[in-house]
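Below is how a single chain appears once it has passed through the pipeline. First comes the sequence as given, then the structure the pipeline wrote out for it. We keep one example in the README because the format questions we get most often are answered faster by looking than by reading.
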Amino acid sequence: MITDALLAYLHFTAILILASALGAEALLLRAQAGAATIRSLARADILYGISSGVVIATGLLRLYFGIKGSVFYTANPVFWAKMALFVVVGLISIPPTLKFIRWRRRLAADAAFLPAAGELAAVRRIVFIELHLLALVPLAAVFMARGLGI
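Resulting structure:
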């Protein structure tokens, strides 16, 4: 019982950190993209990536060592919809991550570097799509917790 509670706590904490990091990216992309903003975007994206890994790890631990057992989850199509959403969000996050890496490298090579306004807007759109899709993941989790789909 304690193990399950601690795994749930770690899982939910990682989810909150992930959402906060993605929200920080969205806010930073609305700002004037100076050197400090580019560095902050890179840090927020690193936090986003690490928290994604922790979400996956703690989710797998809950799946196999949690009270409900793996059958409760794997037999439920809502679980698979939730997993698909998470994977889609992860895949969509790849282009912004690559942009942040490029911007940081260009900034290191040229202290006057600023991303083009159109480039910022394109990345901002992707991050907002991620945020909107991520908001559906807890909906699927609530449905699962209520036994929908089984």
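The CA atoms of residues 60 and 70 lie 9 Å apart.

See the next section for the split statistics.
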